[in-house]
Amino acid sequence: xxxxxxELIEQRFGLPGKAGQDTPAEGExxxxxSHRTHRRxxxxxxxxxxxxxxxxxxxxxxxxxxxxxxxxxxxxxxxxRRAIAELLPSMPWVxxxxxxxxxxxDSRRIRRICELRDIPFENDHLDAFLNxxxxxxxxxxxxIRAADAAGLGACPISVIRNHATRIAELLALPDYVxxxxxxxxxxxxxxxxxxxxxxxxxxxHVDRYNDTNLDAEIxxxxxxxxxxxxxxxxxxxxxxxxxxxxxxxWSEDKARQVSVPERQDFGAFVxxxxxxxx
Length: 278
What we know:
Helix 3 (48-58) packs across helix 7. The termini are far apart. The protein folds into three domains: 1-34, no CATH class; 48-192, NADH Oxidase (3-Layer(aba) Sandwich), CATH 3.40.109; 199-263, no CATH class. Helix content is 43%, strand content 10%. It is of the alpha+beta class. It contains 13 helices and four strands.
């Protein structure tokens, strides 16, 4: 019996629905709905030919006003790769993946082009940072999609922003260039699993933002997600501070995660890269 898109939607959200009941689960839409993040890889290398294909596909993403404000750093030097991995000891896949990239927002290039053309750059404010961030984020997503299409596994690494100054030093990032995320690429050593997402009743709004039913929706989501992939007790965060709840679900885990300050110096780093954030 042919699998339908509706089955993939139910797998992704843990809720039955009518959308896609008559659409076969094939092509790009099915691939997106079936996406898995991979953190375990074989030792098989990725050929340079395939890397060029993935990079070309990644850079085929949309770009704000066609400004193309992204830079991809391929970390090929073993010493630099090791230094980055040592900053992230809880993420051994950074060292183990066949390839590691750092995707950066790049507002330097357009400023240099303005200098070359003797035309003033008149948008030196917060939106310049956001535009470069958006371009880099879209390329990052396209790289992940391209990796999936090629049979590779991918894992984005946002925690490199915890070490933005050191990453910038290691990669010699100039003014107006900043690291958005790392990206591990490799051949998966296991299938991985489909991560359950929040119900669209919380994330998709019509005309006006509305979260009046947040409590009930989050409780239901926590229970569906726990039934599929319960968080092991040895992975519970800050038990000594917050104790052991009867249900340690997604919301408990994420609330505890953001209770710990992170990247408090990132704004200062971005300003040192000469961005104006007003």
